[in-house]
Amino acid sequence: MAVASSVLAGSLLVASSGPFDAAFARQDGAHLSVQYAAGTSDDELRATGDAAGVSAAAGPFRTTTLTPRFSDGFPEPPMTVVGRAEPGGTVDRLALTAGRWAAGQSEIVLPAGGWSSSVIGRQVTFPDLPGSPALKVVGAARSATGTAEAWVTPAQLTALTPHGQANGRQTLYRFASADTANQVAAGLKAVTAQLPAKAVAGSQSWLTVKRNAERDTALYVPFLVAFGVLGLAMSVLIVGHVVATTVGSGIRRIGILKAIGFTPSQVVRAYLGQALLPTLAGAALGVVTGHLLAIPILSDAEEAYGTSGLGVEPWVDAAVIAGVLGLVTATACASAWRAGRLRTVDALATGRVQQAGRGRWAARLAARLPVSRPVALGLTRPFARPALTLATGTAIVFGAIAVTFTAGLGSSLGEVMAARDHDAADVTIGVLHPPFPGREKPQADPSKVIEEQPGTRAYFGTATTSVTVAGASGSTRVTAFTGDASWAGYAMVDGRWLDKPGEAVVPTGFLTATGRQVGDVITLNGRRAPVTVRIVGEILDPRYDGMQVLTDATTTLKAAKPGLAPTAHHISITSGTDADRYADALNKDLRPLGLTADVGGSEGKSETVVALNSLSALLTLMLGAVAALGVLSGVLLDTLERVRELGIHKALGMTPRQTTSMVLTSVVLTGLAGGALGVPLGMALHGWVLPTMGDSAGLRLPDTVIAVYQVPELVLLGLGGLVIAVLGALPPARWAARMRTAAALRTE
């Protein structure tokens, strides 16, 4: 189990080390994708692949832009559809994550991630085309560099091209050198040098895609790295514990070996061989188990990172096996050498002569408790074997730390994702499908309909535009609110939410980029007159590289373009109101306005959140299981040493149920103490690691992300040490209960 845990943890660490770069290398991603205007011949574009510096090229692929509509009636944004016969090739090989590739007419493949997996098998229509053609979604594929938003066969693309509209062309390039923006720009200049000036309609550098991908994953890469490191640490602890306790329990046997002539070095070699044989078998089985368990865990990691092709690298297997063999060798040699240097008479006396007074005070105290005799015997056992109790307790403490830490990480990750999505609204209008760039049109105002709808508690509208801010390069996104948005779900890091015109809140990234702080005044330069606003709060929102300003609509209208109006509305309903029924009733009144209400926020159905939650649960269970197996080894060894004693108890009338209770209660105090110590240590580790993680992602985390432990949860986590102890002790307890009395009494 420790080897399986190490394989998983190591694979997770590898997957979290530059996930974009790894996927880009696996799929031979395009350093540059160029969209050529219609009119350029295919032969001319193929010739660009021979330009200086080009190491590989693919295409040209014919492209068109279409607006799809699914069977639920909602339109989607316009998407670039590429005609491609197969997913492979020399550049930008596509990874199929679900379904299959389009093989004939009326079939389409969508990009992996988000909503695509939920629409496989459904029909997508194109109402803007003559006859509203319908295509069946047959698969989902992932491009390392996002070269398209849908793929069909070349023949299907020709059929989808509107009459009289020429197809564009897309060509993908890989360069010998493309590590900097200047090198990519030089490559673009080289491949287009022999083409007309107006031949290039657009281009995309892989560096832009990489920056966006790393920005999206910066939030949770540190979380998954922490899981991996903790898994490795737990594995090292458990392997060392098992080997040390195994050798330590054989001190009397070492005395017998010395009595028949074994030297200390021969004792070490004997115990090293005894330890390595089961280690090799366990390592082989652990590698296989690790690979099987890696399938769901790395699948979740793929979804989180937006990548594909993650698997267990062969060198991870080799490193884990070598590490476990080295750890077992070092621990066994050290323990056996220490025991081998004992005097023969002292080693022979171990386990036969109990030290005077050890555990007797505990036995006298337990005898006064109102519990049965088997339970009292179990409660005193930890004090009779303090060294073994300490080793078992250490495993429980680390297990409690791991479970507490991982539970906190999972909760913190959920808070971070919720803060990023800020989807506290019960019902939304216009959020899932906002107006498309270049196709904005005045939207009807649903405010009156919302106010008159029974069950409405509060609502606000949002509009977005771009401005420039003094001291910040490029444009800055402005989100303007109509109404009170304090309940929207934005997590405050510092300051307060805006409550009057002329105030604004900004993310940490904005403050870092501009050198401002809460309380400073900034100037928004839009299409109208410059407007000054005062920063009154800092929020957690990593989107758009943190370059956002959130303010009220009145202030924004003074700086923005004329006619800026809300394009989305967020509604909170009263307690006891059914959201689905509310949305259905609201839609009846919104239909004349051409609007549609949906239940939940815009990001509430994120598959990334589901994948990360699933990953957290799997890893927490894995670490808890490893800790329980550490307890099992200690209790099993203790039980084996007490076989004759158990036989005497059975001969005096102890029933199998009483035997089970005696063995289980022998770990109760250790489990409770381990949980009581492990929980605060896990909380302290969580409180130290979380801010460090935020700093590595360029974020300040609010208290809501760090202070995630609640009192009931802490009580359950504290009992987690007891659960780990009992689960680990249960197999030895049942074995002891089934043991025949005569066989136990004959055991020497």
List keywords for this structure.
single chain; 748 residues; alpha+beta; six-stranded mixed sheet; six-stranded mixed beta barrel; globular
Radius of gyration: 33 Å
Largest sheet: 6 strands, mixed
Query: What distance separates the N and C termini?
Result: 31 Å
Helix content: 40-55%
Q: What's the count of strands?
A: 21
Low-pLDDT runs of 5+ residues are 351-357, 432-442
User: What's the rounded overall pLDDT mean?
Assistant: 76
Shape: globular
Number of separate helices: 25
Question: Which sequence of strands runs across the widest sheet?
Answer: 9-4-2-10-1-11
Structural class, by secondary structure, is alpha+beta
The share of residues in extended strands comes to: 15-25%
Describe the protein in words.
With 748 residues, the chain is α+β, with helices and mostly antiparallel strands. The chain is 51% helix and 17% strand. The protein has 25 helices and 21 strands. The strands form three sheets. Strands 9-4-2-10-1-11 form a six-stranded mixed β-sheet. Strands 13-14-19-16-18-17 form a six-stranded mixed β-barrel. Strands 3, 5, 6, 7 and 8 form a five-stranded mixed β-sheet that branches. A hairpin with a 5-residue loop joins strand 17 and strand 18. The radius of gyration is 33 Å and the shape is globular. The chain starts with a helix and ends with a helix. About 2% of the residues have low confidence.
